[in-house]
């Protein structure tokens, strides 16, 4: 059950591919719906639960019986009772999230906030750890390095793994203008999928470049086996200012999936359709 869109904040074209892959695996999506009631109708392990939901426009209801109900609906920051009003720190009253600048400073100069309490940042543990480490060094170690909140490698443990670093296509368009970004993309067919003849069009890679900045790579997205392992390495290159030319002049390892990123020639602008590259 999904309230609105899938994977808000992530690249929406990739989110659509993830949904398609899950639907092909016979996972049903009910959307846009919200849960209104869960009743235990049978004890046991597993017992039985009756679920009631309402469509987001309030016109349709859904009722079904399930063994397990899992809610993965984000989190709010528990900041309401820690005296922020008392010291004048600004926060979003609905979510409890605190407003900070690029140095993690709140509107009160000597008060900083890091981690999931920050408004508009990724709620990820490694990001919070890194931000805290760098803040301590800036405050007490005479260093100046700020946390890079843009080039954050992350992944989704969906049945088809999705790894990404940098911005989504939507965000790149907003930041730079659609005419200033080039999206290179391709499907790829992992070697180990060729013998069993698994889906040729499920795995996908795309690289988003900022044209006026020497086609600097601002986003890398990989949908396929071990996507997180692939993207972790490319994240270092993104942080170093990787350009498409540098990516093209990098020799790929044959026949691994990551090779596809060194050999992207088709742009989304030139052709909506993607080509499939095999790894053998
Ligand atoms: N991100 C991570 O790495 C990890 C996350 N988790 C846990 O997983 C859960 C989900 O996290 P994450 O995906 O990052 O959260 P997000 O905030 O990215 O996504 C939350 C999702 O829940 C929906 N939602 C929010 N409130 C409601 C509601 N009242 N009714 C119905 N749907 C709602 C949102 O819909 P909409 O788009 O419409 O707002 C959105 O799709 C959290 O409990 C988190 O602690 C655990 C481990 C790691």
Write the layout of secondary structure elements.
Blueprint: H1 12-24, E1 33-42, E2 48-55, E3 61-66, H2 84-87, H3 125-140, E4 154-156, E5 162-166, H4 169-176, E6 181-189, H5 191-194, E7 203-210, E8 216-223, H6 227-239, H7 244-248, E9 276-278
Parallel strand pairs: 6-9
Antiparallel strand pairs: 1-2, 2-3, 4-5, 5-8, 6-7, 7-8
This protein binds NADPH dihydro-nicotinamide-adenine-dinucleotide phosphate.
NADPH dihydro-nicotinamide-adenine-dinucleotide phosphate (NDP) is lined by residues 3-5, 8, 34, 72-75, 123-124.
Structure report:
- This protein is of the alpha+beta class.
- The chain is built from seven helices and nine strands; from the N terminus they run H-E-E-E-H-H-E-E-H-E-H-E-E-H-H-E.
- A six-stranded mixed sheet has the order 4-5-8-7-6-9. It has a three-stranded antiparallel sheet with strand order 1-2-3, with no helix packed on it.
- Bound molecules: NADPH dihydro-nicotinamide-adenine-dinucleotide phosphate.
List keywords for this structure.
binds NADPH dihydro-nicotinamide-adenine-dinucleotide phosphate, three-stranded antiparallel beta sheet, six-stranded mixed beta sheet, disulfide bond, alpha+beta, 22% helix, Thioredoxin reductase 1, cytoplasmic, thioredoxin-disulfide reductase (NADPH) activity, 21% strand, flat, 9 strands, 7 helices, 280 residues
């Amino acid at each position: 059950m999904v309230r609105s869109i899938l994977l808000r904040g992530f690249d929406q074209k990739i989110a659509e591919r993830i949904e398609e892959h899950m639907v092909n695996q016979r996972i049903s999506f009910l959307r846009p719906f919200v849960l209104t009631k869960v009743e235990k109708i049978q004890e046991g392990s597993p017992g039985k639960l009756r679920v009631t939901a309402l469509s987001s426009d309030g016109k349709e209801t859904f009722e079904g019986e399930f063994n397990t109900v899992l809610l993965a609906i984000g989190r709010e920051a528990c900041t309401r009772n820690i005296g922020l009003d008392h010291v004048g720190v600004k926060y979003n009253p609905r979510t409890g999230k605190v407003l900070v600048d690029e140095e993690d400073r709140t509107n009160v100069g000597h008060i900083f906030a890091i981690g999931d309490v920050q408004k508009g940042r990724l709620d990820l543990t490694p990001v919070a750890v890194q931000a805290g480490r760098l803040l301590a060094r800036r405050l007490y170690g005479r260093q100046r390095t700020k946390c890079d909140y843009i080039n954050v490698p992350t992944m989704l443990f969906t049945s088809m793994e999705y790894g990404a670093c940098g911005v989504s296509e939507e965000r790149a368009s907003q930041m730079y203008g659609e005419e200033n970004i080039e999206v290179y993309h391709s499907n790829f067919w992992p070697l180990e999928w060729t013998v069993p003849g698994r889906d040729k069009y499920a795995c996908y890679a795309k690289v988003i470049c900022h044209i006026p900045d020497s086609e600097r790579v601002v986003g890398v997205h990989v949908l396929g086996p071990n996507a997180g392992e692939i993207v972790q390495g490319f994240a270092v290159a993104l942080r170093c200012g990787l350009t498409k030319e540098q990516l093209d002049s990098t020799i790929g390892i044959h026949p691994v999936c990551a090779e596809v990123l060194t050999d992207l020639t088709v742009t989304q602008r030139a052709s909506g359709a993607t080509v499939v590259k095999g790894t053998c």
